[in-house]
Amino acid sequence: MSTSEGAGGRRAGRSRDVLRVCVTCRWRGMDELPGTDIRPGQRLYDLVMARAAPGSQIHPICCLSNCFRACNAVLSARGKAAIMLSEMAPDEATADALLATLGRYAASGDGMIVGGNPDVLPVVRALRPGREPGEGAP
């Protein structure tokens, strides 16, 4: 391990890779899933949390302002491009794909995920290039 890396091989000062899932997302015009009082975004978050490894950085977020393309989630870490994931179904296959994508994101140096994405993640796009603090204007 180089001197610029901390525990676990992470560069000093770099935050952890985080997956945030919108819990207020509605899905294709549904306020709540049929027969429940649960929003599709909350259901997706619950499924991801039930499958996540202990210590995974997964957090709920209230609204990513991408309501017409729900369900939504975002991957982020300091110094990496943030990645928006949209138009997802609130199901087990999507939860598994999100966790696999979090692993690919964590393994990337810049947040850019190479390779194909599963069909259950129809829209995956970078929001902006990542920057280290002090590099250019916000």
Short description:
The chain has 138 residues and is an alpha+beta fold. The chain has helices at 40-51, 92-107; strands at 18-22, 58-61, 73-76, 82-86, 123-128. It has 2 helices and 5 strands; from the N terminus they run E-H-E-E-E-H-E.
Descriptive report:
- It is a single chain.
- The chain is of the alpha+beta class and 138 residues long.
- It has a single domain (14-128), classed as 3-Layer(aba) Sandwich (Glutaredoxin), CATH 3.40.30.
- It is 20% helix and 17% strand.
- It contains 2 helices and 5 strands; from the N terminus they run βαβββαβ.
- It has helices at residues 40-51, 92-107, and strands spanning 18-22, 58-61, 73-76, 82-86, 123-128.
- It has a 5-stranded mixed β-sheet, with helices on one face.
- Strand 3 (73-76) and strand 4 (82-86) form a beta hairpin.
- Helix 1 (40-51) crosses helix 2 (92-107).
- Mean pLDDT is 82; it is low at 1-14.
